[in-house]
Design brief:
By secondary structure, the protein is mainly alpha-helical. It has helices at residues 3-24, 31-56, 62-71, 74-84, 88-106.
């Protein structure tokens, strides 16, 4: 399982995955196809969150952001982001929901 697949699974969780499968009407697809679609959604959500963060961060902080993401130190990344994004959890949830709704609209 790739790092993106693992991150997607952590972000989305089992309940979300089951709901997505049901809402998208893909219950009859193979487990591999379902897993692929869920992983793709997770990747899209991560990309959307990253894009939205970059819109808010000053350009002078892009290098530090990239470094923290690359290092994988989630605590340091959160501390850094909280300095620039008020109510970080709500920000992330909003971006994730927007991407989920955009994906649903395409299916």
């Amino acid at each position: 399982m790739s790092m993106i697949d693992q991150a997607s699974q952590q972000i989305l969780g089992d309940d979300f995955a089951k709901s997505f499968i049901r809402e998208m009407g893909i219950e009859n697809e193979s487990p591999d196809a379902q897993a692929h679609l869920i992983a793709s959604l997770g990747e899209n959500i991560l990309n959307r969150i990253t894009l939205e963060m970059l819109k808010v961060l000053p350009e002078s902080e892009y290098e530090k952001f990239s470094s923290l993401v690359g290092a994988g130190d989630m605590d340091a990344l959160r501390a850094f982001l909280e300095k620039h994004i008020p109510d970080l959890d709500r920000f992330i949830q909003k971006a994730a929901k927007e991407e989920y709704e955009a994906t649903k609209a395409l299916m």
